[in-house]
Structure formats: structure tokens, C-alpha cells
């Protein structure tokens, strides 16, 4: 709603209630112009005393004395049990006093004047003013008093009954007692008048009591008619009933009212009949509800004590100090003329209907409606009370002043509130507010309008606290609430208070956002921006002059936050606790297995505290999922975090959210400057010029995983750079988290690569410790040897590393996977017509593969993919470093570098076998080597000729090697500790043997065209049988002819007829018989019992060759025990070749 629409609506609202007041205008002399909206039924038993200042009296002093005077509200009359009730007014119109004959409680019977006089010279003038004041009410006054303050001397010492002198306003301790004396004098006059009227026996000479507007109507009437006389009698009876009620004689008053009703009904004197009925209702209300209907106590305690014999002079209908006779049941029996609660309302209705016949009795009618409503409120009959109020709304009081209209609507509002009609009450309060700024008022009262509008808020289920709108569903009519808020905005602007306008407009936008149309949202936000351009909105509490406070209005819906999540630091910056210290910090340790109290406290802590830490001095992040409900782009400025617990520097951000954006992630950052526990309480924003502090506890339907996190002391920060290119491959280490950085390299199997890492301290804390570890990710591939190796000693010597400094570290990447040929490769080779397993092994011949068929070329993509696929190795290098205050507390950081290696096959060993050599300590290792690359490959080994393989070519290489002595076997205890099964132990042994063999072979490969080279390993290729052939037997046999060693490939020469000495070392040998060409000198059979470890046994014999020729000596071994089952390789004896010559040779000894 724009401001012009607000003004137009205010004007229309006033027209509803002002049109009826523009039809008639009567002179004030004939009617009461100002109703007393505070009247209630029990006021009929009071006497009216006016307290007014005379001359110049300070306002505060006047009301101070007035309050003391008004404290004497009831007085117990001496020598009786009756009470006199007094009603005080400090302002009373004389024309209302003229209605005193109609209802005596409207008659001013007492006047108390308050004046100041400092000297006797001013006294005559002061006295004249007092007498002039008395003249205004002289026709009805019973008695008067003048309280003079400040006058001393002869005048003050004079003894006068109607004047009391006090030195000052502070020295007047007996004011209350003086007032009690004054009230007693009024009662005396009242009682005398009651007796005079009640005992009047003149009959036909009863004067006619009239209301002011009737005097001209009775001119020229026949005063001797029976009708006239009954009218006079009925009105007098009614008048006497009023006097009895004021004098405390309730029963007598009821009797007189009933008689008056009968007399006045007979002559159709409706105005006075209504008065008699109202008097009857008032007396009945006083009887039934001694506590009163105005919501207050019956009055103050009596100031004059009752005499001891007061009960003896009890009169019918007399009331005690509590407002009802001591014997209630007896009194009810006597009060047979008292109306029942239901009849009271019926008589009120009848009286009001009679008042309605007279336009000049509008005030009387209105006040009767008000009294009936108060009675119905006590009876809890709200619906009937609303009918009386509805009638009061349309009572025409003539031309009322604007102030009187405001008072009328305000009282109607209070009465509706009294009966529980809150929305109707708010409506009339709102009408009163609009009346304060009516166009006819020269100076509109915008402050009064604003104050009344604030009072209407509860009736429309509206409060100024935005927290009330976050609980449950919306209460009240949103359209009316929005209109009321617009009126508050407009009124506060006209008051000249733009801060109030901004606050109310912000409240409207925050609480009524769901009910605003797109156009209304645009208009409200434009108005808000116009206001905030002159007076920005904030979070301060606005206190109004009357003490009312307006709480701040944070824009929790601009934008709407759906979730809040505290983010952990990046992986490279996350702190870690030393494991040994973690165990020592269990503060909640308990000797009991289960403690429900302890578990509950721990559960609450888990619900609040997050299981990661932030670091002092590092940028921390909080992610919010926000939504823009506006139909246009929302600009959010200065958005940052609200925290408590530690010193925190928030780094604000500016956002531009698209129209109705849906969930949109927003990250707010900040830096904790101290260590401790920090709580994220919310966030702050600036939207449309209004700064808001939005607390998470005030947000509805917000998901949060916790808002409390620990901030540990400062730690250094390390940054690394590498010589290898960064990897685009997404590594997934064991922790399932993304690595901050990784490198990628492509190597052939067996190739090595140097990785240079530069570490730079980019923080502000010295790096004092540095450790490096590596871990290979889970892979199906078996890696032989060290995949990553380094020397950290040189880098550690450069610590501590100052901020800005850097160190360099070299890491060697060495890939050595299984070189064995796979089953699919062997199958492909067999498909080509080559029997791999059937190759002859008697000699180390080189074989070349035949060309593959066209239908399945070996170099094709499909064929190559089967055996030449690229394997992947992944590992993580972890740099563990610490320093500064964080190190003292036992924290460190880890910086990880992922290493991604694509391993291409370099060569395959498709088949491995062995051939014996001429020496028992040597053998031939046969390797069938396949080149799976697309390039020419050269293979070399120690002391062997290079082998050149073309692409997709397979050849055999024979390598003569010394047999191996595998003595480095795990001990029995270590075997149980490290290996879980015999199979695993066997595999580990094979790998250890293969590693030893590979180091001796020294097989290398190179690709000249690519300038690439590497190693080839037979680890994983050698089976158990091949290993047995390569193993040096524990039993070694040496044969010496004439003292010279004799191997299989050596021909020993001797002369026929000479004896040849044969020596056999280590373990026994049995000689078999030769034929007649050779003669043994001595025994040819030897028995060996036991050969201890590292020991030897010698068997010596001689041969005599009788003929020339080549002889082969076959030495055989026979084991007597068949249960030992020793390997045959342990007993392999060399074959001896001897050539006997004719020429005489010198025999060796």
C-alpha cells in the first residue's frame, strides 16, 4: 500500500462514524454533552465531590493533594452501620450538574478547592475566587472546603469551618482527616434531605422534578390533573430512591424504585420510568455484586471506627463496611424487591429503550449501555453485552468534539476488550487512532494516533516481536495485519521518526512476506530503500517515550536459509593429534562400565560439538544453503558470520541471488585469532539498507550438524611443487578423500624416474619437524622392490624452515611388476603354431615367432589389449610436519602428494627352464623373452651377449649362472610371527630367492628409439622346480685325479700302466666295478657314516688303466636309509673323463 492509499483509507474509515453526527445539533443547555464512560452501576450510591484548583497551583502539587483526597472513597457513618461512598472529579461540566434531579449521583454536592496564597495581601482575592467557584455549583452544593497552602499569620489563625490553612504542601499531614470531616457534613445534609422528601405529606403540593429540556414542555400544563399529580409522585419516589441509595439504605431504595416504576408506567412518563428502572437495576447490582462491576475493590477501609452498639440500631437494608449486611440470608429474605441477575439485564434493556425515545437523553442512554455491559461482563454473557455495545455505537450524541469522539471510541474498545471481543476492540481503537488525525483537526495528533495503533496490535493477533511469527502457523488475518502495519509506518513517518518507519516496514516485509504479491513485494522494498537511504536500519532496540520497546527485526527470510554446515579445513591443512596424546586427554574417564549420566552428557556434547578442529590464523568456512523468495534478483551485502567464544575476524561477502533461485550454496569465511572453543551463532546481512543479525536459534526448519568447534593453536603451512606434471587422474586413496595434488608419469615395467619435490613454508610459523612416509594404494598388481625411495637426511638438516624458505627433496620412482607371460599370451603363441612348452631345451637355440595370421594380427588393438594393457600403480607421499604453538599442544599437519604411474609392459618371460652345466656348481638358465612393445627392444645380462627383439618377437636367452646358496631363510620364530600360513611362507621364500637371482643375473632392457631403459626381474617368474635346479646342493662332490680337480668338461690324461689316484671329497662314494680294462688298486667301495655341517670326508683310491682309450668314470651313491627321502640333487656326482695314452706319462702322485 502506498502512502496516498493509506491517507485515503484513513479518511474513509472516519466517514462511517461521522455521518450520523452531522444531522442534528442541539444547544448544550438542554442536554449533557459529555458522557462519563467510566460510570458503573455502583456509582448510583456515591455522592459527587469536585476537587478543583483556584488560582495558580502547580499541577504536580495539585494532583498530589488530589490523590490524597481521593483516597477517602468510603466512610463508615457514626452511630450506624451505613457506609457513604464518594466519587471525586477534578473536572465536571455545569450542564451535567443540571441533571442532578434526574439522577442524584450526577449532582455536585461537595466542592474542595485547592489554592496557594503566600501573603495576607493576596488573601481577599483568593477568597473571592473561591466564592466564585462555589457559585458555579451553588444550586446543588451541600458543603464546600478551601485548602490554602502557604499562608501564615493572622488570617491563617482564624477558625473557619469551610477553610483549612497549611504552611506548605509538605506540611499537611491531616488532609485525610479534614476530608473525612467534610464528608460527614455532606452525609448530614444528605440524610436531612432524604428524611424531608421521604416524610413529605403535602400530597397534592409535590413539586415536579424536571430534566433541563423538559422545562419548556411543561409550561401551561394543568397542574391539578390526576395525571400530573401521579407524574409528580412517581418522579419524587424515584428521587427519594436515589437519596436512599446514596445514604446507604439499599432496601428502602428498592421499595421506592418499585413504587416509582408503577406510578410512572401508569402515566407513560418514559424518561423517568427509564430512570427508575435503571435505579432499580443499580440497587440490585450493588446487592448481588458487592465487589463492584468496574473491576476494582469496593473501596478503602472505613476511616471512622464503628461503635460497639451499632448492631442494636440496625435498619432494614443497612450495609456493613464490606458492602452487605452481616446476616446475608436474612437480608436476601427481606430484599424481596431485589431483581435477579437475569431480570437486571431485562430491566436495563427496557430502560434503554425508553431513553432512546428522547434525543436529548443520548448521554443517559449511552451510560446505561456501558453500565449494563459491565454487569454482563461479570456474568460472562459476552454475546448479550455485545448487543448493548452495538446499540451504544449508534447513539447520536450530536456534534461532538474530536477529543470526545476519540474518547468514545477508546471506551468502546476497552469495553469490547472487557467482554473478550479482542478484534472488535482493536477495530474501535483503530477508529480512535484515525480520529486523532482527522482532516478537520488543524494539528493532527500523530503521536496519539501512533500510540493507539500500537494498542490495537494484540486484538489483531499481531505483535512487534518477529520471534512470535516463527512458531507454528500464522495467526490472524494477514490482510488486516498488513494494513495496520502500513498505518504504523505512515504514522511514524508523519511523527518525524524515520527509524520507526524503517523498523515497522522491515517487520512487515519479514513477517508478511508469504502474503505479499509480487507487486506488493516490489513496492514495499522500494519504500524501504527510500527510508533507509536517509536512516539505515539496524539491530538496536528502539525505546518509545512511554517505555515500550521495539525489538530488532532480522531479515531471516531475505534470503531464507535452509541448512548451515561448518566445513572442515582442506585436507592439507587439517590438524592431527599425536596418537599418544589422544589417549591421555580422556577427561570423562570413568571406572564404571556404564554410567547413564555420563553417557547423556557425552551425547549432548556430540550433538553440539563437531569432531574436527579449526586452526588459529587459518581461514575457516561455513556453508549455507540459501533461497531467494523475491521475484527479482536479491542483493545481499556485508554477509558474514556471528560467533562467540574466541576472537574471530569475519570476512564479509556480497551476494547476488537470482529471482526465486532455489537452494543456492553460499560460503562464509573468517579467521579465528585465538585458540579455544568457538560457536557459530548465526550470520549478519545488509539487505535493502537494513543490517540484520540472524541467529540460528531463531531460524525455522534449518538443518545443522553442529555449531561448536575447537580452535587449536597456530600451525605452519607447507606448499609443494614437483618436477613432474600434475595429474588429471582422480586418485582415491584409502581415506576416500580427494588428494590436494598428485603427479602422473608413464613408465615401462622395470623403468625408474626421478621426482624432485620443492617444499616451501608459506605460513607464518617455523617448520620444526618434517617426516616423510609413503603408502601404495590397494592394487591387484604385485610390486617387487621399493616403489618409492628417498633420502630425507639432507632436508631435515635444513630445519627449522623459516617462513618464505624452501627445501628440495628427490624421490626415486621405480616400477618393477611381474614380468611373467600371461595365459592369454601363451595361448596366442600356441595359436600361431608354436609349441612354447615343447621347445627343445638341450641347447640354447634362439627361436623367432612366425608371422601371425591376418585374421588376428598380434599388433592389432584387440590383440594387443589382451596382453599389452597398461597397468596402474598409485601411491601417496605424506609429509608430516609441525611447529609453533600447535606443536607444543601435540598437533601436526599432513601434506599428501599422490603419485600415479601408468606402467606399460616392456618384456615378458614366457617360459623359464634350466640345463645342467659342465660344473656341478653351475647351470644354464633358459629364458623365453617376448617383446610386447611396438619398438625394437634390446635385452642384456651380465657376461652375456645382447639379445635384440623386434616388435612382437619372442626369442630365447641362455644364461650360465653359478648355482645359488639360499641360506637367508626366516627363523622358525619369525616365521610364526610374520607369516599366517605355510603357503604364504613358501611364496615369501620364492620371492626372496627370485630377488637374489635377479640381482645376480642383472638383466636389463633398452628401447633405443625412445631412449628408454630399465631392469627386468625374474621375481614371480621362477617356480619351485626351477629354484631347486638353481640351488646349490648342501652336499658338494669334488673329484681329483692325481691331485687335480676333474670336471665334466675336462679330459684327464694318463699313461697306461700307471696308477691314478682318485680322491672324493665330502660324503661317501661307492665305486662300481670296471671291466678288465681298468684295475682298482685297493677298495672301490667306501662307507661314510656321518658328515657334520661345514665338515668334509675324503675317500681315496687308485686306478690302473691297462689299455689306451677314453674312459668315463661313473661314481654312484647308494643310501641305506629309504626313510629320509633326501633330494636327488644333493647327490649329483660329476662325470670323470680319463684318456689313457701309449706314451709313457709321469703319473701324478
UniProtKB/TrEMBL annotation:
Residues 216-290 form the Trs120/TRAPPC9 N-terminal domain. Residues 561-689 form the Trs120/TRAPPC9 first Ig-like domain. It is found in: Golgi apparatus. Residues 386-530 form the Trs120/TRAPPC9 TPR region domain. It comes from the Eukaryota. InterPro entries: Ig_TRAPPC9_Trs120_1st, Ig_TRAPPC9_Trs120_3rd, TPR_TRAPPC9_Trs120, Trs120_TRAPPC9, Trs120_TRAPPC9_N. Keywords: Golgi apparatus. Residues 916-1030 form the Trs120/TRAPPC9 third Ig-like domain. Residues 297-320 are annotated as: Disordered. GO terms for cellular component: trans-Golgi network. Pfam families: Ig_TRAPPC9-Trs120_1st, Ig_TRAPPC9-Trs120_3rd, TPR_TRAPPC9-Trs120, TRAPPC9-Trs120. Belongs to the NIBP family. This is Trafficking protein particle complex subunit 9. It comes from Oryzias melastigma (Marine medaka). The lineage of its organism: Eukaryota, Metazoa, Chordata, Craniata, Vertebrata.
Amino acid at each position: 500500500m502506498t502512502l496516498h492509499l493509506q491517507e485515503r483509507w484513513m479518511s474513509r474509515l472516519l466517514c462511517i462514524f461521522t455521518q450520523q453526527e452531522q444531522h442534528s445539533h442541539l444547544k448544550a443547555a438542554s442536554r449533557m454533552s459529555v458522557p462519563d464512560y467510566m460510570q458503573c452501576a455502583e456509582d448510583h450510591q456515591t455522592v459527587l465531590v469536585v476537587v478543583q484548583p483556584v488560582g495558580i497551583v502547580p499541577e504536580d502539587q495539585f494532583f498530589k493533594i488530589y490523590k490524597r483526597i481521593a483516597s477517602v472513597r468510603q466512610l463508615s457513618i457514626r452511630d450506624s452501620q451505613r457506609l457513604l461512598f464518594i466519587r471525586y472529579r477534578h473536572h465536571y461540566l455545569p450542564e451535567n450538574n443540571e441533571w442532578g434531579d434526574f439522577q442524584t449521583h450526577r449532582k455536585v454536592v461537595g466542592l474542595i478547592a485547592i489554592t496557594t496564597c503566600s501573603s495576607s495581601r493576596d488573601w481577599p482575592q483568593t477568597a473571592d475566587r473561591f466564592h466564585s467557584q462555589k457559585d458555579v455549583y451553588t444550586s446543588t452544593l451541600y458543603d464546600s472546603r478551601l485548602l490554602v497552602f502557604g499562608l501564615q499569620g493572622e488570617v491563617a489563625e482564624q477558625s473557619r469551618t469551610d477553610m483549612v490553612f497549611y504552611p506548605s504542601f509538605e506540611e499537611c499531614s491531616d488532609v485525610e482527616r479534614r476530608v473525612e470531616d467534610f464528608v460527614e457534613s455532606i452525609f448530614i445534609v444528605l440524610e436531612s434531605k432524604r428524611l424531608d422528601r421521604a416524610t413529605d405529606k403535602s400530597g397534592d403540593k409535590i413539586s415536579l422534578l424536571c430534566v433541563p429540556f423538559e422545562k419548556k414542555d411543561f409550561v401551561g400544563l394543568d397542574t391539578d390533573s390526576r395525571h400530573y399529580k401521579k407524574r409528580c409522585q412517581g418522579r419524587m419516589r424515584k428521587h427519594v430512591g436515589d437519596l436512599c441509595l446514596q445514604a446507604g439504605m439499599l432496601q428502602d431504595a428498592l421499595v421506592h424504585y418499585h413504587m416509582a416504576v408503577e406510578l410512572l408506567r401508569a402515566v407513560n412518563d418514559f424518561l423517568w420510568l427509564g430512570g427508575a428502572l435503571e435505579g432499580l437495576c443499580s440497587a440490585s447490582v450493588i446487592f448481588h455484586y458487592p465487589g463492584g462491576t468496574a473491576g476494582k475493590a469496593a473501596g478503602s477501609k472505613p476511616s471512622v471506627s464503628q461503635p460497639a452498639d451499632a448492631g442494636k440500631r440496625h435498619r432494614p437494608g443497612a450495609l456493613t463496611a464490606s458492602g452487605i449486611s452481616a446476616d446475608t440470608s436474612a437480608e436476601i429474605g427481606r430484599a424481596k424487591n431485589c431483581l435477579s441477575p437475569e431480570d437486571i439485564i431485562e430491566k436495563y434493556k427496557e430502560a434503554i429503550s425508553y431513553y432512546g425515545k428522547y434525543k436529548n437523553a443520548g448521554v443517559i442512554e449511552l451510560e446505561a449501555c456501558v453500565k449494563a455491559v459491565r454487569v454482563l461482563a461479570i456474568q460472562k454473557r459476552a454475546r448479550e453485552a455485545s448487543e448493548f455495545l452495538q446499540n451504544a455505537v449508534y447513539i447520536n450524541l450530536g456534534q461532538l468534539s474530536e477529543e470526545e469522539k476519540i474518547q468514545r471510541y477508546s471506551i468502546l474498545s476497552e469495553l469490547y476488550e472487557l467482554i473478550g471481543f479482542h478484534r472488535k476492540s482493536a477495530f474501535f481503537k483503530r477508529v480512535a487512532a484515525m480520529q486523532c488525525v482527522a482532516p478537520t483537526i488543524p494539528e493532527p495528533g500523530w503521536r496519539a494516533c501512533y500510540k493507539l495503533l500500537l494498542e490495537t496490535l494484540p486484538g489483531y493477533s499481531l505483535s512487534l516481536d518477529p520471534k512470535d511469527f516463527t512458531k507454528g502457523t500464522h495467526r490472524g488475518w494477514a490482510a488486516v495485519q498488513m494494513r495496520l502495519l502500513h498505518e504504523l509506518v505512515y504514522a511514524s513517518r508523519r511523527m518525524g521518526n524515520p527509524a520507526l518507519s524503517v523498523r515497522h516496514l522491515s517487520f512487515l516485509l519479514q513477517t508478511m512476506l508469504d502474503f505479499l504479491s509480487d507487486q506488493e513485494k516490489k513496492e514495499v522494498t522500494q519504500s524501504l530503500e527510500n527510508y533507509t537511504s536517509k536512516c539505515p536500519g539496524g539491530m538496536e532496540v528502539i525505546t518509545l517515550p512511554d517505555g515500550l520497546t521495539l525489538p530488532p527485526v532480522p531479515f531471516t527470510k531475505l534470503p531464507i536459509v535452509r541448512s548451515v554446515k561448518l566445513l572442515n579445513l582442506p585436507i592439507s591443512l587439517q590438524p592431527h593429534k599425536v596418537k599418544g596424546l589422544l589417549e591421555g586427554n580422556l577427561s570423562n574417564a570413568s571406572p564404571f562400565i556404564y554410567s547413564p549420566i555420563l553417557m547423556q552428557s557425552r551425547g549432548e556434547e556430540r550433538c553440539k560439538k563437531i569432531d574436527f578442529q579449526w586452526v588459529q590464523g587459518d581461514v575457516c568456512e561455513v556453508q549455507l544453503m540459501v533461497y531467494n523468495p523475491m521475484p527479482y534478483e536479491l542483493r545481499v551485502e556485508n554477509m558474514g558470520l556471528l560467533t562467540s567464544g574466541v576472537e574471530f575476524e569475519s570476512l564479509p561477502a556480497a551476494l547476488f541471488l537470482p529471482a526465486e533461485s532455489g537452494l543456492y550454496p553460499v560460503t562464509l569465511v573468517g579467521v579465528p585469532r585465538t585458540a579455544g572453543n568457538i560457536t557459530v551463532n548465526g550470520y549478519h546481512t545488509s539487505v535493502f539498507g537494513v543490517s540484520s543479525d540472524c541467529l540460528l536459534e531463531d531460524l525455522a526448519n534449518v538443518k545443522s550438524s553442529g555449531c561448536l568447534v575447537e580452535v587449536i593453536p597456530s600451525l605452519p603451512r607447507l606448499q609443494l611443487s614437483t618436477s613432474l606434471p600434475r595429474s588429471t587422474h582422480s586418485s582415491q586413496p584409502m581415506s576416500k578423500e580427494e588428494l590436494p595434488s598428485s603427479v602422473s608419469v608413464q613408465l615401462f615395467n622395470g623403468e625408474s624416474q626421478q621426482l624432485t619435490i620443492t617444499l616451501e613454508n608459506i605460513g607464518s610459523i617455523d617448520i620444526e619437524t618434517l617426516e616423510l612416509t609413503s603408502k601404495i594404494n590397494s592394487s591387484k598388481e604385485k610390486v617387487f622392490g621399493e616403489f618409492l625411495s628417498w633420502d630425507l637426511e639432507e632436508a631435515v638438516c635444513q630445519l627449522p624452515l623459516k617462513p618464505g624458505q624452501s627445501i628440495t627433496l628427490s624421490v626415486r620412482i621405480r616400477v618393477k611388476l611381474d614380468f611373467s607371460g600371461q595365459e592369454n599370451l601363451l595361448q596366442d603363441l600356441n595359436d600361431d603354431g608354436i609349441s612354447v612348452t615343447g621347445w627343445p631345451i638341450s641347447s640354447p637355440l634362439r627361436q623367432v615367432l612366425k608371422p601371425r595370421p591376418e585374421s588376428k594380427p598380434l599388433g592389432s588393438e584387440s590383440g594387443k589389449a589382451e596382453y599389452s594393457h597398461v597397468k596402474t600403480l598409485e601411491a601417496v607421499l605424506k609429509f608430516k610436519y609441525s611447529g609453533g604453538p600447535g606443536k607444543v599442544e601435540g598437533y601436526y599437519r599432513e601434506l599428501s602428494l599422490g603419485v600415479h604411474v601408468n606402467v606399460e609392459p616392456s618384456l615378458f618371460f614366457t617360459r623359464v627352464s634350466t640345463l645342467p652345466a659342465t660344473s656341478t656348481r653351475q647351470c644354464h638358465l633358459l629364458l623365453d623373452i617376448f617383446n610386447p612393445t611396438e619398438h625394437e627392444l634390446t635385452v642384456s645380462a651380465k657376461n652375456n651377449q645382447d639379445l635384440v627383439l623386434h616388435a612382437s618377437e619372442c626369442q630365447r636367452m641362455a644364461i650360465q649362472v653359478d648355482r645359488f646358496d639360499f641360506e637367508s631363510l626366516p627363523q622358525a620364530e619369525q616365521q610364526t610371527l610374520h607369516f599366517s600360513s605355510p603357503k604364504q611362507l613358501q611364496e615369501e621364500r620364492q620371492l626372496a630367492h627370485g630377488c637374489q637371482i635377479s640381482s645376480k643375473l642383472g638383466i636389463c632392457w633398452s628401447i633405443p628409439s625412445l631412449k628408454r631403459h630399465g631392469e627386468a626381474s625374474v621375481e614371480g617368474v621362477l617356480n619351485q622346480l626351477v629354484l631347486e635346479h638353481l640351488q646349490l646342493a648342501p652336499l658338494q662332490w669334488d673329484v681329483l685325479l692325481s691331485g687335480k680337480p676333474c670336471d665334466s668338461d675336462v679330459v684327464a690324461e694318463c699313461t697306461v700302466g700307471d696308477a691314478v689316484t682318485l680322491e672324493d671329497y665330502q660324503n661317501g662314494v661307492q665305486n662300481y666295478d670296471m671291466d678288465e680294462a681298468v684295475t682298482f688298486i685297493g677298495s672301490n667301495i667306501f662307507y661314510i657314516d656321518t658328515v657334520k655341517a661345514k665338515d668334509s670326508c675324503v675317500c681315496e683310491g687308485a686306478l690302473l688303466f691297462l689299455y689306451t682309450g677314453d674312459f668315463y668314470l661313473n661314481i654312484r651313491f647308494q643310501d641305506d636309509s629309504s626313510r629320509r627321502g633326501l633330494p636327488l640333487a644333493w647327490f649329483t656326482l660329476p662325470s670323470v673323463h680319463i684318456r689313457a695314452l701309449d706314451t709313457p706319462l709321469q703319473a701324478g702322485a
